[in-house]
């Protein structure tokens, strides 16, 4: 994108101007910080976060690590001090040179920079300061954009600028989850409103129900990749339409459908308004399912027949499905969808009834609701699930869309997710691997040979790096959990326990994921006596928990509440911590610091899971059900596994899995961690870490994932069939 012809209205100039205006308000020597602040590339350059933190560490945290706000809100005295700090200026100059070099590289030779891949997704977890994400899907999308930037693959991403983001979580003293929303001021984000040469915002319009909804477009720079966020909160719209981009995963179906029309149809219109003609359109999850219809409309307008237009749109569309959980595959009553899209359908020669049929498993069943996953599967030329096992589950789950095909031939392949290594790896582990794997190891992370030297990292060095990352987590946990408990109004003794909570030398277990019933957090506390004895044993264990329950998922909320019910047992106060409001920042600290990462989904409902991969590249070990990615990663030496067999009797399955969990934790994990040699090093544990790094590092990094998308889906317009790992 960066090396293409100068497109006047794509927001690049607006971003440059915003950075220049910020630079003008800073002491002269800090101008390069302003330019760095407007491209998230700083966040994954070694030394980038440290650079901004060094300007004013407290304000950097107060501004949610948003460097634009930091520089705007920082007191002049602090700025003047930074402007006189030679080391800081040298670091800024070095980082800016790296950024410029990165932006000026030519695009990957297999791709035409004039025809980028359009990537459409409802959420993006690029950075904690850009709160337009909720969890795994967003984190994955953010990682994919960063990797595309690193690989110089031309992608243009489109999403929505949620002014209130996703809900924030606060747990009260009784353990009940409360939700609240925080307003984001996009003017203070590292984002620029795309304007026309006249200075007016560039806008697009989409018909939604009876209204013509207008959206303006923000541009965010994720390294070389532009992320365009549509925003309807403008005076041209009525109050209902302004609300469309208020909240991510708004529960109200009316608003949700409006969001999907905006993202799908509006997303493609926005790209055209920006002068971008995509090669392939990647629907990352079903929310953007309507996007191909906009390609159809344009093709019809250019004289193609409806059938021809539908077929050529299909050939340009690839779809990734991300969950087998029914709640993740939205569907809406046909009448409601019909009202939402009636005027849109009129713009095509496609009758509304046929459009609705695209979203039905049995197209002619008038009573069946409209499902976005069905629509995306029908309108894409290639489709994939996100792990090998999820591929099997997905083919089974959607086989009735292809009644004439045997299940194995259902055209849903898989590309297993991977994580962006520079984003997730902690500093100590990065320094360790930099020292042992050679300078280019990050660029060649997908090559197993890159990881071979891990075998020769001395025990003491590996253990020291793990210790540093665990200590950083412990320090964070003490501060955060004390504040959380004070805010909840907990009893004094329990608050004080938080300030003593966690020991930097104790086996630290992490369980951080959405609190949904199928994730089975309760397996940990199914037998409270066992839990208490594990925590108070001679060989100590500490557990950090985090995760949000969906606001309407009462059952999940009760699970949380039950967990909090245990808190008055003395040992719990110091050994178990629940961190409110799980986000990208706490996720990073957890995956870096925990020794053991637990995952207990009820199989086969975990599509993939990525937090375990983040933990693994940091030297964390996995104890997980053989579901999602772990079913293809576990090799007997690189962690621990609980059977992934499916039992129709859920109660029996939970009993059996809890028993397996107990046996593994008490019988293997804990003794192995505390089995030390004469130098106080856990030799067997360390060799398991080495096995884990070597087997997981190359296969579950985002470079491997992106290479697969590039080779099978992005490089050509999509051929009919599967995006399939052989
Ligand atoms: C990585 C990540 C996730 C996804 O984790 P799972 O393993 O899929 O549960 C969710 N939330 C945040 C904040 C993350 O960083």
Describe what you observe in this structure.
By secondary structure, the chain is of the alpha/beta class. The protein has three domains: 12-104, no CATH class; 117-417 and 708-721, Glycogen Phosphorylase B (Rossmann fold), CATH 3.40.50; 421-697, Rossmann fold, CATH 3.40.50.2000. Helix content is 44%, strand content 13%. It contains 29 helices and 20 strands. Strands 1, 2, 5, 6, 7, 8, 9, 10, 13 and 14 form a ten-stranded mixed sheet that branches. Strand 15, helix 21 (528-536) and strand 16 form a beta-alpha-beta unit. The longest helix is centred in the middle third of the chain and has 30 residues, at 459-488. The two termini are 31 Å apart. Mean pLDDT is 94; it is low at 1-5. The protein binds pyridoxal-5'-phosphate. Pyridoxal-5'-phosphate is lined by residues 135-136, 139, 513, 582-584, 587, 609-612, 614.
């Amino acid at each position: 994108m960066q090396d293409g012809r100068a497109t006047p209205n794509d927001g690049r100039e607006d971003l440059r101007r915003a950075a220049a205006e910020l630079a003008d308000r800073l002491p002269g020597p800090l101008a390069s910080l302003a330019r760095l602040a407007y491209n998230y590339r700083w966040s994954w350059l070694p030394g980038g976060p440290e650079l901004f933190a060094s300007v004013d560490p407290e304000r950097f945290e107060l501004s949610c690590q948003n460097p634009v706000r930091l520089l705007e809100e920082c007191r002049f005295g602090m700025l003047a001090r930074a402007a006189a700090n030679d080391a800081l200026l040298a670091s800024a100059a070095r980082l800016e040179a790296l950024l410029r070099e990165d932006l000026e590289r030519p695009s990957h030779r297999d791709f035409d920079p004039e025809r980028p891949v359009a990537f459409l997704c409802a959420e993006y977890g690029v950075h904690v300061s850009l709160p337009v994400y909720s969890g795994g899907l967003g984190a994955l999308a953010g990682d994919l954009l960063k990797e595309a930037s690193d690989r110089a693959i031309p992608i243009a991403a489109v999403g929505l600028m949620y002014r209130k983001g996703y809900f924030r979580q606060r747990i009260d003293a009784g353990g009940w989850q409360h939700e609240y929303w925080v307003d984001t001021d996009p003017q203070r984000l590292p984002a620029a409103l795309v304007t026309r040469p006249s200075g007016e915002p560039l806008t697009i319009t989409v018909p939604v129900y009876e209204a013509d909804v207008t959206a303006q477009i923000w541009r965010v720079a994720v390294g070389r990749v532009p992320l365009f966020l549509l925003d309807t909160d403008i005076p041209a719209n009525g109050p209902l339409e302004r609300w469309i981009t208020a909240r991510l995963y708004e529960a109200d179906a009316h608003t949700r459908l409006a969001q999907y029309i905006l993202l799908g149809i509006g997303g493609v219109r926005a790209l055209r308004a920006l002068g971008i003609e995509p090669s392939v359109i990647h629907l990352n999850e079903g929310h953007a399912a309507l996007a191909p219809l906009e390609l159809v409309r344009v093709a019809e307008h250019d004289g193609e027949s409806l059938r021809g237009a539908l077929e050529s749109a299909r050939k340009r569309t690839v779809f990734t499905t991300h969950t087998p959980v029914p709640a993740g595959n939205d569907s809406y009553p046909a009448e409601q969808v019909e009202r939402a899209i009636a005027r849109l359908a009129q713009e095509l020669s496609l009758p509304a009834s046929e459009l609705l049929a695209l979203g039905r498993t049995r197209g002619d069943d008038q009573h069946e609701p409209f499902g976005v996953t069905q629509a995306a599967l029908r309108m894409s030329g290639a489709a994939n699930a996100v792990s090998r096992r999820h591929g099997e589950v997905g083919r089974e789950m959607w086989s009735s869309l292809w009644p004439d095909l045997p299940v194995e031939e259902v055209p849903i392949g898989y590309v297993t997710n991977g994580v962006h290594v520079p984003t997730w790896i902690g500093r100590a582990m990065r320094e360790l691997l930099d020292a042992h794997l050679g300078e280019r190891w990050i660029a060649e992370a997908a090559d197993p040979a890159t990881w071979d030297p891990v075998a020769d990292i001395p025990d003491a060095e590996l253990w020291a790096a793990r210790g540093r990352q665990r200590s950083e987590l412990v320090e964070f946990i003490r501060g955060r959990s004390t504040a959380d408990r004070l805010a909840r109004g907990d009893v004094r003794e329990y608050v004080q326990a938080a300030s003593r909570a966690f020991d930097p030398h104790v086996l630290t277990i992490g369980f951080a994921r959405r609190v949904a019933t199928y994730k089975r957090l309760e397996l940990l506390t199914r037998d409270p006596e066992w839990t208490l004895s594990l925590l108070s044993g001679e060989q100590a264990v500490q557990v950090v928990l985090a995760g949000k329950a969906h606001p309407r998922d009462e059952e999940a909320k009760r699970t949380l509440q039950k967990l909090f019910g245990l808190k008055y047992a003395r040992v719990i106060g110091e050994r178990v911590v629940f961190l409110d409001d799980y986000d990208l920042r706490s996720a990073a600290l957890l995956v870096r610091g925990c020794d053991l990462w637990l995952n207990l989904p009820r199989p086969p409902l975990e599509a993939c899971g990525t937090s375990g991969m983040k933990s693994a590249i940091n030297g964390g070990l996995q104890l997980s059900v053989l579901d999602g990615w772990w079913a293809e990663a576990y090799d007997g030496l690189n962690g621990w596994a609980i059977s992934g067999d499916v039992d129709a009797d859920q109660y029996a399955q939970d009993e059996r899995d809890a028993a397996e969990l107990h046996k593994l934790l008490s019988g293997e994990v804990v003794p192995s961690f505390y089995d030390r040699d004469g130098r106080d090093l856990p030799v067997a544990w360390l060799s398991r870490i080495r096995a884990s790094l070597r087997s997981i590092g190359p296969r579950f990094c985002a470079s491997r994932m992106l290479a697969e998308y590039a080779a099978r889906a992005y490089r050509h317009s999509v051929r009919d069939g599967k995006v399939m790992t052989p």
